[in-house]
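Intended use. Records like the one below are meant for learning the mapping from a protein sequence to its folded structure. Do not use them to infer anything beyond what is encoded.
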Amino acid sequence: MHVLESGFESKGRPCVLLLHGFPELAYSWRKVMPALAAAGYHVIAPDQRGYGRTTGWSADYDGDLAPFRFPNLVRDALGLISAFGYRHVDAVIGHDFGSPVAAWCALIRPDVFRSVVMMSAPFPGPPALPFDTVDKPPAPPKDDAVLRELAALPRPRKHYQWYYSTREANADMHGAPQGLHDFLRGYYHHKSADWAGNRPYPLRAWSAAELAKLPTYYVMDRDKTMAETVAEEMPDAAAIAANRWLPDSELAYYSAQYRRTGFQGGLQWYRCGTSGAFDAELQAWSDRPIDVPSAFISGKQDWGTYQRAGALEAMQTRACSNMTLCELVDGAGHWVQQEQPEAVNRLLLRFLNKSTE
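Structure written out for the chain above:
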């Protein structure tokens, strides 16, 4: 596993583990790590399985998906901190797809991951296990008609997670007509507070009519690729030159890594979820809440907070029994720790100070 470290110069520090999301890398924590280290922590941020300079994973679309399921990603995190000589960490902090990984870390091994911060993706809890079925066997799983209903809208649509699960998605992005660097520029811009259309609000239900209210980076036009989708919202040269949270010199690191690896490693995570192949395994933790101190931080202009109706409320009322902080940061879209690092660092340190008292 390739890792970035901060605060490693002195021994005996408490440890904090940072887990990135898609399409990011350990590098996405570059504005958080120095602040946590200055507060006395040894901060470790890996390129997760499927990403960056971490090796030992397969990008074969027809290969085994099992290595990318949540319990194995928890095993990765556990193995990493163990390799550094830690029996526990003060906090595991995850952003985007790293958020559910962090949540599962705290759920499965609360003795090791002693607090958790979920960022930009609420955790609604484990899937439910069928209950009281001796005399009334459970009904078979209902076919989710939403995907068909989205395709049947007057403006036909598709959900990005199922698009990311297709064989074509990696090639569409890796070989983007505008070039990979400009693809990532458009993608990060479209999901940031810089894009004026990001004015999110809660959706009422998991239905085609409600999902169609989401921006096209979540609910795409049926016949467009993600590269084509974000190209329509590409910032102009002046906006790119004025960008301070992700200047081209920093974006170049992402584009260089993804040019080398492609996106399939990260896309395998989406395929695990949309396939439902590992839901039964996760039911082993059905009705089990996260009991360690927990927090949620997201951008106020981030649709990710609301993309799954009811998830934010479920996290606060059922999935976490000890949530002490829930904050939406103004001036930030989906990339909250990159767009507004000072605010995020203040919130993280407030949470860490309280949870370790």
